């Protein structure tokens, strides 16, 4: 579950918004170096200036590779999604810290509509603290956003297995 605060452009400037998003991710690890995953998410936002309630849904397929080096684990996750009626490619650079990884730092670029032309729209920077094998908390920000003002995301994760 993620709770996001973000700004969206309107004709008279920007407005303040708060949204809630839920994600379900199913993944399979072939070995310590390679895994695939599928993600589905739905969300609802409230745009206070216009009192809109934009609903959104997103589905994605991804592949992740990493190189466990002990206390440091560099990785790469590439995701192909369908969001806002556009195919989006999102490569993510990951950096895990800890023998039993307790912190993940990352950066992700979203390339919307890449089938008709590469258009990098946003770069996310984020951190995820793994409090236990089942619980995690994360915070992130979309920066260098061309279309919209920066977005801030806070969330809690629960791992079934």
What does this structure look like?
By secondary structure, the chain is an all-beta fold. The protein has one domain: Porin, CATH 2.40.160. It has strands at 2-10, 13-31, 34-47, 55-66, 72-83, 86-97, 103-112, 120-130, 135-143, 151-158. The protein has a ten-stranded antiparallel barrel with strand order 1-2-3-4-5-6-7-8-9-10. Strand 3 (34-47) and strand 4 (55-66) form a beta hairpin. The two termini are 17 Å apart. The model is unreliable at 1-12 (pLDDT under 50). This is Outer membrane protein beta-barrel domain-containing protein.
List the main descriptive attributes of the protein structure presented here.
single chain; 161 residues; mainly beta; Porin; ten-stranded antiparallel barrel; 0% helix; disordered N terminus; Outer membrane protein beta-barrel domain-containing protein
Give the helices and strands, then pairings:
Blueprint: E1 2-10, E2 13-31, E3 34-47, E4 55-66, E5 72-83, E6 86-97, E7 103-112, E8 120-130, E9 135-143, E10 151-158
Antiparallel strand pairs: 1-2, 1-10, 2-3, 3-4, 4-5, 5-6, 6-7, 7-8, 8-9, 9-10
Unreliable spans: 1-12
The total count of helices amounts to 0
- CATH architecture label: Beta Barrel
Which class in CATH terms? Mainly Beta
Biggest β-sheet, characterized? 10 strands, antiparallel, barrel
User: What is the strand tally?
Assistant: 10
Protein name: Outer membrane protein beta-barrel domain-containing protein
